[in-house]
Amino acid sequence: MLAGGAAGRLGGADKPALSVGGRTLLDRVLGACADAGDTVVVGPRRPTARAVRWAREQPPGGGPLAALAAGLRHTAAATTLVLSADLPFLRAETVRSLLAEVVRGGSGVEGVLLADPGGRDQPLVAAYRTEPLRRELALLATEYGSLSGLPLRLLTAELSLGRLPHPDASFDCDTWEDVAAARARIRDDGRVLDEWITAAKAELGIDLDVDTTALLDLARDAAHGVARPAAPLTTFLVGYAAAQRGGGPEAVAELTRKAVGLARRWAEEAEGPGGTAPAGRSGAAPGEAAGGQGQQPGDKAEESE
Q1: Which is higher by pLDDT, 107 or 98?
Q2: Neighbours of 110 (CB within 10 A)
Q3: How far is CA 223 from each of CA 212, 216, 231, rounded to the nearest angstrom?
Q4: CB–CB of 105/119 below 8 Å?
Q5: What is the mean pLDDT of the chain?
Q6: Is residue 177 predicted with pLDDT exceeding 60?
Q7: How does 126-135 read in b/e, with b if 16+ C-beta sit within 10 Å?
Q8: Is a pLDDT exceeding 90 seen at residue 131?
Q9: Three-state SS at 172
Q10: DSSP β-ladder status, 53-55 and 40-42
Q11: Is the pLDDT of residue 40 over 90?
């Protein structure tokens, strides 16, 4: 996963650390690829919800190809999932579909890219066979003397690639408007409860498939038909997590504080700093390439796995 870059259109903010739906963008992407045998994050070290291996391109800020090469040095897997760290709507099922398409394509397919609704390739939301990646990166390094600053299209143009269309998984947060749109979408399009439960489980350190319909029916019956969905479900998760730790008032108190902290962060997103685009940060700086780091339009040069 590539989690570096200057985030020029965000005024230099630490983009992977921005919160969407109570979780950082980086943690959201890490959650989508939790089944990976080994996870390498290329970029500055940051707190993460699960353990990862860190790597850094040299020099720092050398762009996506340099970052990708740095990450590949830490994996021996036959297939490499390459993801940017600013994908709020990426889901595990999409990741599994990318990997399955690589297998289905056989030896004639060296990778599968996600295609956005406009049909544009997303080379940093993709699964690649590792050896072709190593081969082409080595050839580019020899040809240009360095991978630093080179655009992703130089790599993808040399690979035999399949495409997997998806309506929203490639949505990325390059600007403050993108961040605000992602936060609003999570709250307003019917996914808010699922998003909250996922965030709460991650915060509490539990992995549990919650039958929300049954629990909400029970809550409505107990409350004589008055439903406050997030409250009973969150309380249930706190109790479950406390039981996993052996129970007791200390466990309940600690986990309740965590859930309260998550709820406060959730609420602050709509009102606190970064909730709307700060003045002067709504567009690209003069002369800045889209996404920074010298990539071409349609490329993403900041983040992958």
Answers
A1: 98
A2: 21
A3: 16, 10, 12
A4: no
A5: 80
A6: yes
A7: bbbbbebbbe
A8: yes
A9: coil
A10: parallel
A11: yes
Give residue 273's pLDDT: 56
* Beta carbons of 44 and 85 less than 8 angstroms apart: no
Per-residue model confidence (pLDDT) at position 270: 66
What DSSP assignment string belongs to 5-36? S--GGGTT--GGG-EETTEEHHHHHHHHTTT-
For 8-165, which CATH superfamily applies? Answer: Spore Coat Polysaccharide Biosynthesis Protein SpsA; Chain A (3.90.550.10)
Q: Say yes or no to pLDDT of 296 above 50.
A: no
In sequence order, which residues have a C-beta less than 8 Å from that of residue 97 and are 6 or more positions away? 164
**Where do the domains of the chain lie?**
8-165, 176-268
* Measured distance CA(207)–CA(219) in Å, rounded: 22
Alpha helix (H) residue ranges in the chain: 25-32, 64-72, 92-105, 130-144, 153-156, 176-188, 192-204, 212-222, 230-244, 249-268
DSSP states of 54-71 as a string?
EE--SSTT--HHHHHHHH
